[in-house]
Amino acid sequence: MDRPFFIGNRKRFYEKMKPHSLLVLFSGEEVRKTNDENYPFFAERNFVYMTGIEQKESILFALKGDHDVREILYMLPPDPMKERWTGRRLKPSEAEAVSGITDIRVSGQFSEDFHAVAAGGHYSVIPENYESLYLDLFRVELSERERPSHGFLRQVQANYPYLNIESATTILRQLRLIKQPCEIEAHRKAEQITREGILAMMHASRPGMYEYQYKAEFDYALAQHGPEGPGFPSIISAGRNNFCIHYYSYTGKAEDGDIVLNDVGAQWDGHTADVSRGWPCNGRYSERQKLLFDCMLQTSNHMFDIVKPGMRMNDVDRTIRSYNAQLMVDAGIMKDVSEIGTYMWHGGAHHIGYDVHDLVERPELIAPNMMFCIDIGIYHEEWGIGFRLEDNLLVTENGCENMSASIPRTTEEIEDEIPHRH
Ligand SMILES: [Mn+2]
């Protein structure tokens, strides 16, 4: 993404802030893996969305007065010895070129600057008296590791209890819901690379192939396009391992007659595709496999026919479920639509973007430039068949577009890509 994207995101954020308020966002810290080794650093997506900076221990500090906003970016200072070991750090001029923020200071300066502002108008030379502080405190589980914003919150509550805490997360979720043209463009590229990865797996497919070998094909294809690779841990499984929805072991083997399931996505410029296909490792769907697959395909096609602005978001999930249930009854797979819970184990629509399960404010009504998955999964344990068909939907002015349509998605298209081998 270019600088105007990040400048624009901040501008829209600042417009939603109350007058006389502060915003503090953190890029995050490294997480220790073992001994003196850390997991690869992964910057907070909200921080990247607002600044374009993906360097650890960076902080965005914005001060909104009556109308105008001052913004400061704090970053680790140059350190030749540390950079010799762990790579070069962004220079202030580079950080400015990416983010458009001109006031760049060293991370160690932040606490003092914040104190000068937050200690109140009475004590400070700064004329404003700030009342609210916006923080991104999103956390899934209480037991989850604290991020810098949580530790910072405790300091604020101890030292500046008169500051009202406001949710930066809520505003960011609203902004991230609607995709901008450069995001849609990045997403198209992510789809194109994902297509190459899935095709590589299909072309290599044969009975006796291990899940880790499929994964190697996918990773190799993605690596031809740069260092970003998969946007989330790839789900690649075979046979009964397909009944584990988030399967990451890669130890199983695809036996003759097994379905190989993938749920994968390449990342491009921060945007992540999220596509599932399920195919017979031997290149020919059995009658039962085709019967189930065609229910998913017809349901998916129906959704791409009917989704348009103004439709209720909750109806997407509901319709996927009821439509697919009716098809399965009509096909004689089950007796009554009430049995659908036996075969459909998860919801069918989540937003995508900077996160594969995107952090957005779930809308009541669908609007142009929203982007979400149409994900239909059928798990028939008795038949030993489990797979899903997942595509990426972009809402347009009058309807929608399937952004992953060029990745083979009918049984005929898929069989054409897989060598017929026993
Ligand atoms: Mn997925």
List its traits.
binds manganese (II) ion, alpha+beta, 19% strand, 6-stranded mixed sheet, single chain, 422 residues, 2 domains, 3-stranded antiparallel sheet, Creatine Amidinohydrolase, Chain A, domain 1, Creatine Amidinohydrolase
Outline the structure in words.
- The chain folds into 2 domains: 3-176, Creatine Amidinohydrolase, Chain A, domain 1; 178-417, Creatinase/methionine aminopeptidase superfamily (Creatine Amidinohydrolase).
- It has helices at residues 3-16, 45-51, 80-86, 92-99, 110-118, 148-159, 168-177, 181-204, 211-223, 287-306, 313-330, 411-417; strands at 21-26, 32-34, 37-38, 59-64, 69-75, 103-106, 132-135, 164-167, 235-238, 259-264, 267-268, 271-272, 275-280, 371-380, 385-395, 400-402.
- It is globular, with a radius of gyration of 24 Å.
- It has a 6-stranded mixed sheet, sandwiched between helices. The protein has a 3-stranded antiparallel sheet with strand order 9-10-13.
- The chain starts with a helix and ends in a 5-residue tail after the last helix.
- α1 (3-16) packs across α2, α8 crosses α9 and α10 (287-306) packs antiparallel against α11.
- It is built from 12 helices and 16 strands.
- 39% of the residues are buried.
- The protein binds manganese (II) ion.
- Manganese (II) ion binds next to loops.
